[in-house]
Amino acid sequence: MIWKLALILFAIVGISHLIFGIIYVTANEFMPYHAQALNVDWNSLNENYKTLFLALTRLAGAGGLVAGLVNITLVNYLYHRVESRLIWLLIVSSLIFQFVTNYAVYYVSRNTPGDPPLLIVSTGSVILIIATLFLFAGMRGKHA
What we know:
Layout: H1 2-25, H2 32-38, H3 47-80, H4 84-111, H5 118-142
């Protein structure tokens, strides 16, 4: 039971990474908190800055898509079969993307006037920590 709960929590975070990825990859301008952080309106930027910001935004979105797809694929696989190396891949890949995102959002919130979604991103980090602990507890019964 705890094994399935852990996988459900990982899936929730994976879906959130996919949503993040879709939003950022399909963005036509930077996010509102980016405008706050820079204290500038999108329309006042020249085309070179717009191109650069969109490229960076879409790159971050691509990272979210990859992290989410890897996460969901591994959760689906591990729901049916237990392989320790894939468990570790799920944990490490999820935590790396989540904590790098958490760091970047925290850095923006502390060093600029921007108001990024720190609470939402931090909640995802807490869910992943809980999911990881549940996964370790569930591994005992699975003999992975």
